[in-house]
Amino acid sequence: MRASAQVRTKIRSTSLLAAAAAMALLTGLTACASSSTSTPAAGSSSAAASSSAASSSAASSTAGSATGSAGGSAAAPDGLVGTTFVATEVTGSRSIAPGSMIKLTVVDDQRLSATAGCNTMNGAYTITGDVLSAPLMASTMMACMGDGVMEQETWFAAFLASSPTYTYVDGVLTLTNGTDTVTFGVAPSGAAAVEGTGWKLTDLISVSGSTVAAVDPSLSAWIRFNAGEVAYNNSCNLGGGSAEIGDADITFGAMRSTLIFCDGPSGALETVMNAILQGVTPYEVTTDPSGTRLKIMSTDGVTGLWFVADPTVGADAFAAATGSATATSSG
Prior knowledge:
Blueprint: H1 2-29, E1 50-51, H2 53-69, E2 84-91, E3 103-106, E4 111-115, E5 120-124, E6 126-128, E7 131-133, E8 137-139, H3 149-161, E9 165-169, E10 172-176, E11 181-186, H4 191-194, E12 198-206, E13 211-214, E14 222-226, E15 229-233, E16 238-245, E17 249-257, H5 264-276, E18 279-288, E19 291-297, E20 304-309, H6 317-320, E21 327-329
Antiparallel strand pairs: 1-8, 2-3, 2-11, 3-4, 4-5, 5-8, 6-7, 9-10, 10-11, 12-13, 12-14, 12-20, 14-15, 15-16, 16-17, 17-18, 17-21, 18-19, 19-20
Helix pairs in contact: 1-5, 2-3
């Protein structure tokens, strides 16, 4: 048994070393390296985060009434606390910016977290009757790309500060201030957040997430999940296997793959993907101006993969994958 364990450990170490070498090759081939990851985890905020100009401006007209009613603030209704909501519709003076997502998390009876497409906002809120007020939301201060995203963030901070009334019925949260109305549904989580679309590989994460390198656009790699199974294209071979999706981790089982030999960037990318997509891997689904993003980190948390949702990739993967794989690895 000890000898078997030593063999598995040696194989795993060899795989990780090969992946590291492949990652270095791919990083050296791209000119799109960045010094930091592009999408912060939901709810994160730097210690130096400050209120946005729009939030501060809106707070000047509402802070007095919010402070005055704080003593009579009621607890959030059952089902709100600890729940993340995603806007399904905005009506009134504007609509949801293309390719973006508005999220609102009721952290506890006192704090909200929100994002309107790029930066993360956090702050205190009160509920008085059917009025919700969050007059001072602190925000991260990243410059954001995307049509209308910065304007949407400014508007949403002011909207939360405007003391909108709310209703919460059967999982649907509606906020309105008389000018604009935002309708939210409960954000999908676990398998519901990952399945139902394909995910196109866009970036490689290395050095525990501190650097990100864009994947060469000439390489096509993707992953797709369905009912406990995964299918993928690592730019060289097609493969698949079992994948159990939890709330924070994906557990990959034995993988089967076609056996095409690839060298150069395609072969290097295959090595990286094969090394990461095995065992128990942390993941998160976020949003930024480029769309909905999926980040999968390696078991040791050192390397990872960034994907963007793309319903066209792997659309027929499960219909076609009925047993053509010719190789199996236990990871």
